[in-house]
Design goal:
157 residues, alpha+beta, single chain, globular
C-alpha cells in the first residue's frame, strides 16, 4: 500500500477516501487508500446487473421542463425523445446546436444508452470542429425541439 500525503489526495471539499486498484490476471492490487472510499465501496464491489436479469440500458438525462411537457400529446417523454434522436441520426445536421442557451428549469427522462453515446460522440465532433464546448443537453434539446415543431406543424396542417 502506498502512503500519499494528505495534500496530494484530498481537497478541502472532499474529506472522504477513495481506493485505486490496478487489476490484472493475477488479481487486484490496492495502490493507495484515502478516506474518500468508504461511501462507494459497496457500489464498486457490486457486480454489474446484480439483482436484475437484464443490464441497465437507460440513462437519465436532464432537459428543459417545458420541452418535456410538449411531448405529452405524442406519447411518453422517453418515446418522443428517442424517436427524435433516431430521426436525427438517420440524417444528422452538423449545424446543431445553433444555440447554447440552456434554461434552468429541468426535468429528467430516461433515454436508451446507445442513443446517449451517439449524442456524446456527435457533441465531441462538433466541439473539435468549432473549437469550443458543445453541451450534450443543448444538442438533445435542439433535436427534440425541432422534432416537436415538425410534429406540431404536421398535426395542424
Amino acid at each position: 500500500m502506498r502512503d500519499l500525503p494528505d495534500s496530494s489526495v484530498r481537497t478541502k471539499r472532499y474529506k472522504t477516501p477513495f481506493y485505486l486498484y490496478i487489476g490484472s490476471a493475477s488479481g487486484s492490487i490496492l495502490l493507495w487508500q484515502t478516506k474518500r472510499s468508504a461511501m462507494n465501496d459497496d457500489l464498486a464491489q457490486q457486480k454489474p446487473g446484480a439483482g436484475t436479469s437484464a443490464p441497465t440500458r437507460r440513462i437519465n438525462v436532464a432537459l428543459d421542463q417545458a420541452l418535456l411537457r410538449r411531448c405529452a400529446p405524442y406519447g411518453s417523454q422517453t418515446e418522443v425523445v428517442e424517436q427524435a434522436l433516431r430521426a436525427f441520426f438517420a440524417a444528422p445536421d452538423t449545424a446543431v446546436p445553433r444555440s447554447t442557451v440552456l434554461r434552468e428549469t429541468v426535468g429528467t427522462t430516461s433515454v436508451d444508452r446507445q442513443l446517449i453515446m451517439a449524442v456524446k460522440w456527435f457533441a465531441l465532433d462538433r466541439e473539435v470542429e468549432r473549437g469550443r464546448r458543445v453541451s450534450q443537453r443543448a444538442v438533445i434539446e435542439e433535436i427534440v425541439r425541432a422534432y416537436l415543431d415538425a410534429r406540431d406543424a404536421e398535426s395542424r396542417g
